[in-house]
Amino acid sequence: MAGKATATQNKRRQALIWTVIIGITVGACVIGAISGDSDTDVPAPAADERSGTVPILRAAADSQGICYGWQLVDTYDPVSVGSNLGDGTAVADAPGCSRWIEVYANVIYTSSSSESNDSASIRVKGSDDIEFSDLAAIESGLGRFGLDEDAFVDDPGWAVTRAATMLPLLATERGLADPAATPTAEPATPAVPLPDAGSDFWRDRWILLLTTVGLFLLAALFIGVGVRQRRRQLRGPVPAQRAGAGAAGRTREKT
After folding, report:
1. DSSP tag of 143
2. H/E element holding 103?
3. Distance (Å, whole) CA 116 – CA 178
4. Which of 45, 63, 127, 205 could be cross-linked to 180 through a Cys-Cys bond (beta carbons 3.0 to 4.6 Å apart)?
5. Rounded CA separation 146/121 (Å)
6. pLDDT band at 196 (very low <50, low <70, confident <90, very high)
7. What is the total count of domains within the chain?
8. Residue 171: pLDDT band by 50, 70, 90 thresholds?
9. Does 125 lie in the same domain as 51?
């Protein structure tokens, strides 16, 4: 009876161990999915990037007579817009900007569980008096400065503001305006070097990694306990000695 009770207890313990392991595994998968989806929002340009871009565009617009701006979009949702008239002011809607050029970037981030890759679409738009061929040439010219699709995917905010500052130079190359005067005013906020972005792989999966390590440690602990209990079960209980057996043996020896 004692052996059956011990076997029943071991089965219950093993069932409990597997229940805990399965629960931790499911929880790790859910946490990994949530953490991966949280990185799909496209970040806006930093404050110093926006404040440093506006005066450059303002000086170019005053010198060339063309308004310049940028627009960053997350699929269909606006993320950041700005122009020579200030952060938050779209160049196409700005009063007094009958002639304008704008860099338009649509960046799409996908979750880590998706089979689709992150992507970016960069366009250069302009007022009706600017030829499409000129806008297309300016658009392709951004690639000479490293402002291609990969740059917009890696750091959309920096890329779109950087591209906006290149518009006056590229417009000059196309003969749309004279060279812009060099701005003398310092940016309102000094530019700060960008931190090292690090590895996207570990950034997206550090929670899942920690959970997996904890799962392995917990499983090793449960396995060790189970092996120890199994060894005790195989040894079995030591038979109890009958009362008086020792005394009877000593009596025979004396006789």
Report:
1. G
2. strand 100-108
3. 43
4. 63
5. 15
6. low
7. 2
8. very high
9. yes
